[in-house]
Every structure is written in C-alpha cells, then in structure tokens.
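Methods — Computational structure assignment.
A single polypeptide chain was analysed. Its primary sequence is given first, followed by the predicted tertiary structure written as structure tokens.
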Amino acid sequence: MSIAGRPVAAQLRARVPALTGRVVARLLADLPVYADLPHEEISGDIADIVQHNLRLFADVVEHRRPATEAELAQQRDSAAQRAEEGVPLDAILTAYQVGTAMCWQEAAKGALPGDLATILEIMDRIMVLQQQLTSAVSSAYLEARQILDSQDHGGRHALMAALLTGEPLDRFTHRTGLRPAARYLTMTLALAPHPDELNQSPGPGAGIAARRKIRRVRTSLDHFAGTPALTALDASGGTVLLPAAEPPPWHGPGGLRALVEEATRAAGVPITAAAETAEPEAVPAAVARNAEIVDLIVRTGRPPGLYRLADVLLEYQLSRPSEALHGLAQLLRPLEAKPELLRTLETYLELGLDRRATAAALHIHPNTVDYRIRRIDRLTGLSPARPADLQHISAALVARRSV
C-alpha cells in the first residue's frame, strides 16, 4: 500500500528511530508516571517496546493481516513487567494509544485525494491492531497482578512466614494443606541502591527503580531454582528461601557464586549475600546466621559477593559479646588519635604485608609505610612483622569493628 506514491511500510521502517524518539518524548511529556520511570528503563525497555510496535505496524500494513500471537509476546512481557513495577494499567493503555496515533499520523502524511481507499484500509488495520494490543496488554497485566496478589496473600506467603517463625510443620500442613520441601537454601541479600534510586529520590521514580531492581533479582533466583522463590525483599535486601533437594554447589557453573554474580549483573548493583542449606526446622537459625554474616561483611568493609560462615569464622567468633572482645579492641586504642596509622595498618594487612602495594594504595612512599609501621609498634607494642603479634593485630581490628 502506498500514500502519495510512497510505500507506507517502507516509509515507516525508515522512520522508526526518529519516530521512536518522538513517541518517547510525548509519553514523558503527557504521562507523569512515565516521566518518573528511571532513565535506564526509558532508554531501554520503553524505547524497545515502542520500536517493536512501530515495526509491527509496518508489517501489518505491508502484509494486510492482523498481528500474530508470537508478534504480541513482547508486549505481553512488557505489560507484566510494568505490573510488577506498579505502573497503572490506564497509563500503559494510554501510552499504546499515543504511539498508535503518532504512527498513523506518520503513515498518512502527505496523503492525496486519490489515496482515500488506501487510507481507509490502513485505518481498518490500525483499529484491529489497537484492539489486539489492548486485549494482549490488559490480560497480561491483570494476570501478573493476580499472581503478585496471590503470592502476597496466599499459600506461598503463609509458607514463608511459617518457615521463618519456626511454626511446627505438621500443624502448618494440617492448617493449609501445603507441605514444605525437605530442605531449603536460605539466603540473606544486601542490595546496594541503584543509581536510578538515588537520581530519582525523592519521588515515585525511586520506588519504581527499586521495584525494578527487586524484580530482576527475583527473576535470577526463580531461574536458578526452576520454581518461584520464596522471598521477602525490599530495596535494601532481605531473605530468600529456595527448595533444595541437595545442597547446591558453591563454585562452578550452576553454583551459588554464579547465581549471585548473575543477580548482580541483572540488578545492576553490588550484592552481598550469605547462604546456608537447612532443613525446615532449622530455617530460622540459618536465616539469623546469614543475617549476622552479611552484617559482618558490610561492617568490616569486605567486597560484595557470596559468603558462608567458614569465610568469616574469626570475625563471627569475635563478634560474640564477651570481655575478651573489649580487651582486644583496646589493644589498638593508642591509634585512635592517629587515623593515618590505623588506615595504614588496615591496608597493610589487607594487601598481605606488601609495603609497595600499600604505598601505592595510600599514595605515599614505601619508606613512609615503614615509618608508620615502626610508629605503630612504638605506640601499641605490636608489629605486623612479628608473627605472634600479627594474630593479635588481626583480631584487634575485627574487635574494633564489632564493639
């Protein structure tokens, strides 16, 4: 079909990049909820779905047929994602109407009186496509909301609550008819804020960015487990329970480290995690240990990633309240008034007693490192150069962060 001597489908395809920019700009101007979305989402998911719709419009016109179910799959997936992010359905449907209207204006540009029959046919194709889009988007959105609501108030929510509170399993099964798995992989996650959360704060955009981050983490967890994960997550992190027939491997493909790395990539933020496999009765204790481990990792300045109790045995033990803990912390009290010495000591130990690496990290001369280590020895009576003192210094540093 042609208008003003130009093939409509070819013209639309050639104009897709520029028209996408115009449609997105119109959405941001006319729909406040879209203006509050994170920039990453606008330039990514939203722009992608606009382009997909424009190309679909061109295909429908060129082949003179309705859209196929496969061609509407991306719109359904997009609608489900917007549902999880809390974008209202009426705003989504309005966005599709705006895009369709602008696409029609582009197609009909320069029409001549002799093009009336073509214009009417194209309009008919547009109306059919708009009806298909409205039906596909609405059904996918409402289905996603129904699933989310059932997860919040249904059996899965009750199961997680029972596991976390230690409710007797026989009583829970009798009450709900649900049977817990034989064991669970328990995980505690600490999620760093996404840049879009910070850029959009304060305002609704920050909440949308946080929900988007959480959704991506959940998607990674669901894919790993092969079933929807039991989660209690907010913007800062939370608890995850995954059914596990056997304790999953820690390393290698399909292992837990790979899971945390994938979730980190998907969410676009650093993730600190602790994990332990436990039988249902032991879930509360395992979750509590995981939370303590994550707190230790964050407080002691270790890098994000996956940890287990074996990785923090010294820190974990020293974090238990005791008189010895206070005494260890006091070993380095003479350095409190000398923060440059304390920082040098921490860096020196972190870098394996490498004076040159320490000097480079602190932007000082290696001789300055040597001088500061001697001053630490004079002030505290402890030197990392002496093996016996090294253990006390390491323990004292941990104790300082724990008291």
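Note: The mean pLDDT is 85.
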